[in-house]
TrEMBL record:
Signal peptide: none annotated. This is (4Fe-4S)-binding protein. Residues 59-84, 85-114 form the 4Fe-4S ferredoxin-type domain. It comes from Desulfacinum infernum. The lineage of its organism: Bacteria, Pseudomonadati, Thermodesulfobacteriota, Syntrophobacteria, Syntrophobacterales. The keyword Ribonucleoprotein does not apply. The keyword Iron applies.
Length: 308
């Protein structure tokens, strides 16, 4: 089984639309939405939820006012200001550090595990999907990412499906680290801007650190063709495989509104570009499976430059 993780240095680059399109082009896959803070793959894959499970992680303090003698030590030691003058714990401020329970001489502080969100197993037209929703202001998103990836791998193995497509979170923080560890290939989706180039550089550095083979494509390339070309050249310089340019197309917005994959709209220019990127990804993953070297820099440089 191979896992492809699609990431970017920021939100809104088109990761989710690309993952849904790849799923339609690939046929039978397992989908995983690892962007648990703002999951939206379900918006374009029409899932039917089959299972729902609580995500329990971390702790939260609760003061038993019958046992509490109002000595004030808990308020004194709580560096997050989570305990008010009436000795009630504000859940949104409590970080679950446990210092209040540690210093309480009356053992009036209970320290419970808390439910931080939910995760689902769903069926889609392209195969099963594991996705989740983290609660408002909750932490431990890295743990939830690890959980949904683990369950997605379990599904792929139990159903003997060879490909796992993961819609990763944006940025380079803990959720992204949790989403690319032990992945087979990473696709970084960049936008043709100066900040988009910097975002791509950070994502590629992260993939290199974890020794995950990386590829790059530029979405909405015709909005700034010169910058798109610079991103392609920088990707090659950093050892990534450049897979192509994807033009801007209003059909992307329409597909999001309709809740459908881009492939459903026929042979549009954006779909043809995505097909080329997908074929490049398949070749890259096949080469990795065979132990062969990745496509040459010359073959990547030969791709057509974006047009204004």
């Amino acid at each position: 089984m191979k896992e492809l993780v699609v990431i970017s240095g920021k939100g809104g680059t088109g990761k989710t639309s690309l993952v849904a399109a790849f799923a339609a082009l690939a046929g039978k896959v397992v989908l995983c939405d690892a962007d648990v803070d703002a999951a939206d793959l379900h918006l374009v894959t029409r899932p039917r939820i089959m299972e729902t499970h609580d995500f329990v992680s971390g702790h939260e303090a609760e003061i038993d006012l019958e046992r509490c003698t109002r000595c004030g030590l808990c308020r004194q030691w709580c560096r997050f200001g989570a305990i008010d003058e009436a000795f009630r714990v504000e859940p949104l401020l409590c970080e679950g550090c446990g210092v209040c329970a540690h210093v309480c001489p009356d053992r009036a502080v209970d320290f419970f595990e808390k439910t931080c969100g939910v995760w689902h197993i769903s069926e889609t037209p392209y195969g099963p999907m594991v996705h989740a929703r983290l609660g408002i202001a909750e932490e431990n998103s890295g743990k939830l990412v690890a959980l949904v990836r683990r369950e997605a791998r379990r599904l792929a193995e139990s159903r003997r499906i060879d490909l796992l497509l993961t819609d990763g979170p944006p940025g380079v923080g803990c959720p992204v680290i949790a989403s690319i560890g032990n992945a087979d290939t990473v696709l970084a989706v960049a936008e043709p801007t100066v900040s988009g180039r910097h975002d791509m550089e950070r994502v590629l550095a992260l993939a290199e650190h974890f020794r995950v083979p990386a590829a790059v494509c530029v979405n909405k390339c015709d909005l700034h063709p010169d910058e798109a070309q610079r991103i392609a050249e920088e990707a090659l310089t950093r050892g990534a495989v450049f897979l192509g340019f994807i033009p801007f197309d209003p059909v992307v917005t329409r597909s999001q509104v309709d809740g459908r994959s881009l492939v459903d709209y026929g042979e549009t220019p954006v779909v043809r570009s995505i097909q080329e990127v997908w074929e490049g990804l398949r070749a890259l993953m096949a080469a990795s499976a065979d132990g062969a070297s990745k496509p040459s820099r010359e073959s990547s440089e030969a791709r057509e430059k974006p047009q204004a």
